[in-house]
Amino acid sequence: MTDTPWDPSKPILEIDNLSISFFTRLREIPAVMDFSCTVMAGEAMGLVGESGCGKSTVALAVMRDLGKNGRITGGSIKFKGRDLTHMTEEELRHIRGSEIAMIYQEPMASLNPAMKIGAQLAEVPMIHQGMSKDAAWKLARQIVADVRLPDPDRIINAYPHQLSGGQQQRIVIAMALMSKPALLILDEPTTALDVTVEAGIVDLVKDLGRKYGTSMLFISHNLGLVLDVCDRLCVMYSGEAVETGNVGEVFDKMRHPYTQALFRSIPLPGADKNSRPLVAIPGNFPLPHERPQGCNFGPRCSYFVEGRCNAQDIPMFDVPDGHRHESRCLRFAEIDWSTPPAVAKTTEKTEIGRVVLKLDDLKKYYSVGSSAFGGGTKKVVKANETLTFEAREGETLAIVGESGCGKSTFAKVLMGLETATSGQIMLFDENVQSTPIQMRDTGTISKLQMVFQNPFDTLNPSMTVGRQIIRALEIFDYGNSDEERHARMLELLDLVKLPRAFADRMPRQLSGGQKQRVGIARAFAGGAKVVVADEPVSALDVSVQAAVTDLLMDIQRKNKTTLLFISHDLSIVRYLSDRVMVMYLGHVVEMGTTDQVFSPPYHPYTEALLSAVPIADTRVQKQRIVLEGDIPSAVNPPPGCPFQTRCRWKSRVAGGLCEKEVPPVRTLDGGHQIKCHLPDEVLASMEPVIKIAAE
Amino acid sequence: MLLFVLRRIGVMILTAFALTFIVFYMTNLPPNLEKLAKSEASVRMDDAAVASWLERNGHSGPVLGRYAQWLGVAPGWTLTAEDGTVTGRCITRGTDPATAPRFCGILQGNWGYSTVFKATVADVLARSLGATGWLMVWVMIVMVPSSLLLGVLSGMREGSRTDRVLSTFAITTTATPEYVSGVILIALLASATAGISPILADWGWISGKTLFPGTATAAMDDITFWNFFLPVMTIALYGIGYIARMTRASMTEVMTQQYIRTARLKGVAFRQVVMRHALRNALIAPFTVIMLQFPWLLNGVVIVETLFNYKGFGWTLVQAAGNNDIDTLLACSVVAVFVVLVTQLISDIGYVFLNPRIRLA
C-alpha cells in the first residue's frame, strides 16, 4: 500500500511530542500533552491509566478521528515513516481499516444492528482491496473461523443482536483482521465482558498477534491484562506519559511515584484487609483545565518537594541501565524504590457474631410468556436454585459469578424488589421471603440496605447531596425534628469522609468516588445491619476503588455490619471477604472461607474463574484454563450439572453422571461446600491455579 | 408473523366496535335526534310530535339495539301503521315488505341514506374517498421523498451550513398551518391582482389571468398539474417540514453511534457511511411518523378541501357534521377508524423489516 518500501526494523508507529486539545466555547482543554511513544513491528504496547488520563484520545488521534472539537496542536504521529497528522481525508481512508484497525470497548454498540455480520466483515476487503463480493464473503467466513467462532456459516448470516457479547467482540476482532493490518489498536477490548470470556479473547488476541505479526497498541486500565498481553507499556497520568518501558521493568522496577502508587492501590495476592491494607492514592485526579504547575502528580505524591517538583515543566528522563525505560520524575534517582509502603494502620480482625441472615432453600423462578397477549409456551427461567446459607454479624460474604449467574436476582429477592418462589429468608427473627418492599416496615427496610453499582445513575441529579441523605433519614423515621436529621446527615458525611460542605453540592459536582460515598452514607443512614453491596467499586477507577473499599471496611468494623459483597472481581473479593460463595447459572457451586475457595480442591468452575483473572504481579504463575463457549442460557439450562457443558474434569466422573443429575452439595473439611460429582481423590489431586514464584 | 397479524386484526376489530359505538352514541343523543326530526319533518313540531316521528322512523328504543341494527347484527325495525302499510329500516319505500331482507346494516353493505346529499352514504363515501385518495397519493409522492432527503441531508452533518439552511426551511414550513400557507400560496400564485400572476400576465407568459387556478374543483374530473399543484403543495409543505425534522433527529442520533465510527474507521467513505450504515437505522423512527401521516391527511384535509373547494372526504365530513347527517357521520368515522388501524398495522409490520432486532411472534 505504501509508496516507498518500508524498513521493518524501523518503528511501525512513532508518536513524537504529541499534544491534543479539545476546544469548547469557553476554553481550550488540553487532553494530551507532550506524549511520545514508539511501537516496533510485532510489538504489543500497553497504554495504562485511569479514566480521563487521555489514553483513548491518543488512540483516536492515531486514527485521526478526534471529532469536531478535537485537534492535534503539536507533534507528529508517524506510521511506517509517514506523518498521519498531515494526511488528507482520502489518504487516511486508505490507511484506516486496511493498515491500522481498531477494536472497541463495547462490541454491541460497535456493530451495525441492521446489517448482517458477513456484510459488515466483507465490506473491508471490498473497499480496500477491491475484492468481489463473493470472494469477500468467503474471506469473511474464513476469518470468522479463525477467531474460533463455532458454526461460521450461521454467524456470517446472523445479525449482531443474535450473538453473545463474547461472540460480538470476536466479530469486531475479525473485522479488524480482515485486511491483515500492520497495527491494531485495542481500546479496552474486554472491559464489557466477563472474566472467563475475557480470558478467551485475550488468548485469541495474543495468538493472532503472533500469527500475523501485527503490532498492537493495547489500551486498558487493568494492569493484569497488560502484563498478560504486552511487551512494553506506557503509564499515563492526566494527559502525560509518566513512565514507559518494558513490562517487566515497569512492573518490578518502577521509577515513577504514580506507577508505584497505582500498584499499591490494587489488591494483589498477599494483600489483606487487616494486616496489609491497600494504600489509596490521596486526593483526586486533576481536571484538565485545573492541572497544577510542574508535575501533574505533585499534589498527590508522597515524594513531593515544594519548589522543585512544582517549579517547571518536567520532561521524560532516561532511566539508566533500563531498556528504553523512561520516567517523568525529577527525583527518580533519589528515591529509594525498595522501601515498603508505610503501613497505614493494621487493624484487628472483626469478630464474627451471631447469625443475622439465614437463607433456606431459596428459589426464584421467572416464567417468561412468549408474548404480551399470552399464548405460546410458557418458559421458566430458574434464576436462583436452592440457595442455602447463613451470614453472621460483622462478616463479609462475597457472592461471585459472571453475568447471568443469578447474583443480582438474589439481591433483588433479599431486598424485597421481588418475592421468592419458595424457600425462606430469615432476617434476624423475621421471615421476609414473601414480603415485597412496600409491605416491609421501616425497621426492616432501614436494617437491610443496598449500595449500588453505578453511583452516576443512583443519585437524583436535581437534589443536593444533603437533601438526599435527609430524605433517606425521613423514610427511615429517624429523629424527631428537621434539626436532628440535619445533624445526623452531617455525621454521616463525616462517616464517609466527605467534607460537610458537600451537603449543599449537587451530584454532578462530585467525582465518581465521592458519589459512591454519598451512596454509602445513604445506605447506612438508618443504621443498616445488613448491607448488600452490588459491585460497589467496579465502576470506579483503581486508585479510587481502594479508598472506597477501605471506607466500607471501616464502617463495617464500626457498626458490625454484615456485608454481602456481590462482585465479579476475584482480586478484590480475595482481599476483603471472610467467606465466598461462587454462583453459576443460579446454583451455588462452591462456598467456604476465602482461603478454602482460593486454594484447591476447587469446584471446576472456580478453578477456571481463578485462572481467568489477570493478576498484575510478575511473580505470579498461573495455570491457564480457558473455558470453551458461553454461559448457557438460563431459559434452557443443560441437564444435570449446570457446568457440565464447559467442564474440563467431566471425563473423570464415571458413568456420565454429570449429564444426568444435579450434583449434591458435599461438605468437605472445615465446612467447605462443593456441588460436584468429582470423586474425592480427584478433588484432592487438584493443583493450585495461582502460584507465587519464590523471589 | 401470521399469528401476529391475525391477533392485531382481532384487536383492530374490537377497537373499531368500541369507537363506532362511541360515535353512534354521541350522534344519537336525544337533542341530536330532535334536531333531525325537526329538519326532516317540520320545524314547528311539538315534543309529542317529535317523539312519535322518531318512533315511526326507528329512532326510539334502547341505543344498543339501534347500534346492533345499524351494524346489521340485529333485524331491522319494522312498523305496521294503522292503515296496514309496513315500513321498516330495510324496506325501501314502494317495494313489497315481504321481499325486503331482515338485516340491513353496514355489514350487509347498507351504509344508510345521507340526508344532506340526498344519496346513499355508500355513493357519497365512494365519491369523496376517491377524490381524497388522489389528493393523498400526490401529497405522499411529493412529501415523503423530499422530506426524507431533507432530513438525511441535514442530519448527516449536524450543525453544518447545509443543516442550518435546511432546518430553517423545515421549521418554517412546519410552523405554518395549512390555512395560512394555503392563503399565501393563493395570494402569491393564484390571484389576478396580487403575487406574480399579474406580472406574468403583463409579460404575456400566461394566457389566463392567473398562473394557477384558485380552486381545485376541476380536479374532481380530471387531475392536471395546474389544478392540483396548490392543494397538494399546501398539505405537503407542512408535512415535509415535520417529517424532515423527525428524520433529521433520528439521523443525527444515528451518526453519533459507535457503529458509525466503526464504519468510518474501517475506511468506508462518508457517502457510503451514510447510505449503507446510517440510512436504514435512521429510517426506523420516521417510518412510524410517515404511517401516522395517513390518518392525519385523511382528517386534516378538511381545511384544504374547503379552501380549494375540492369535494373530498374532509369536505363531506364538514357538510355532514354541519347538517346533522347521522348516517354519513357514522360512515366517515368507520372509515377513519379503519384507516388509522390499518396504517398502524402496516407500520408495525414495516418496522420488522427495517429493524432486525424486533421479531413479531
Structure explained in plain terms:
The complex is a heterodimer of chains A (695) and B (361). Chain A is built from 22 helices and 26 strands. Chain A is an alpha/beta fold. In chain A, the strands form five sheets. Chain A has an eight-stranded mixed sheet, with helices on both faces. Chain A has an eight-stranded mixed sheet with strand order 18-19-20-15-21-22-25-24, sandwiched between helices. A four-stranded antiparallel sheet of chain A has the order 2-1-4-5, covered by helices on one side. In chain A, helix 8 links the parallel strand 7 (183-187) and strand 8. Chain A is globular and about 75 Å long. Chain A starts with 12 loop residues before the first strand and ends with a strand. Mean pLDDT of chain A is 83; it is low at 371-375. With 361 residues, chain B is mainly α. Chain B has a two-stranded antiparallel ribbon. In chain B, strands 3-4 form a two-stranded antiparallel sheet. Chain B is flat. The mean pLDDT of chain B is 83. Classes of the chains: A alpha/beta (695), B mainly alpha (361). At the A-B interface, helix 2 and helix 4 of A face helix 10 and helix 11 of B.
- The total count of helices of chain B amounts to 14
Give the helix proportion of chain B (percent range). 55-70%
Mean pLDDT of chain B: 83
Strand order of the largest sheet of chain A: 6-7-8-3-9-10-12-11
Strand count of chain A: 26
List the SSEs and their pairings.
The complex is a heterodimer of chains A (695) and B (361).
Chain A: E1 13-23, E2 28-39, E3 44-48, H1 55-62, E4 70-79, E5 82-83, H2 89-95, E6 100-103, H3 107-110, H4 117-128, H5 133-146, H6 152-156, H7 165-177, E7 183-187, H8 195-212, E8 215-220, H9 223-229, E9 232-237, E10 240-246, H10 247-252, H11 257-265, E11 317-318, E12 326-327, E13 355-368, E14 379-392, E15 396-400, H12 407-415, E16 422-427, E17 430-431, H13 442-447, E18 448-451, H14 465-475, H15 482-495, H16 512-523, E19 530-534, H17 542-559, E20 562-567, H18 570-576, E21 579-584, E22 587-593, H19 594-598, H20 604-612, E23 620-622, H21 657-660, E24 665-667, E25 673-675, H22 680-685, E26 690-692
Parallel strand pairs in A: 3-8, 3-9, 6-7, 7-8, 15-20, 15-21, 18-19, 19-20
Antiparallel strand pairs in A: 1-2, 1-4, 4-5, 9-10, 10-12, 11-12, 13-14, 13-16, 16-17, 21-22, 22-25, 23-26, 24-25
Helix pairs in contact in A: 4-5, 5-7, 7-8, 8-20, 14-15, 14-16, 15-16, 16-17
Chain B: H1 2-27, H2 30-40, H3 47-56, H4 63-71, E1 78-80, E2 86-88, E3 113-114, E4 119-120, H5 121-156, H6 161-175, H7 178-189, H8 197-203, H9 225-255, H10 258-265, H11 270-282, H12 284-307, H13 313-322, H14 326-354
Antiparallel strand pairs in B: 1-2, 3-4
Helix pairs in contact in B: 1-14, 2-3, 5-6, 5-9, 5-12, 5-13, 5-14, 6-9, 7-9, 9-11, 9-12, 10-11, 12-13, 12-14, 13-14
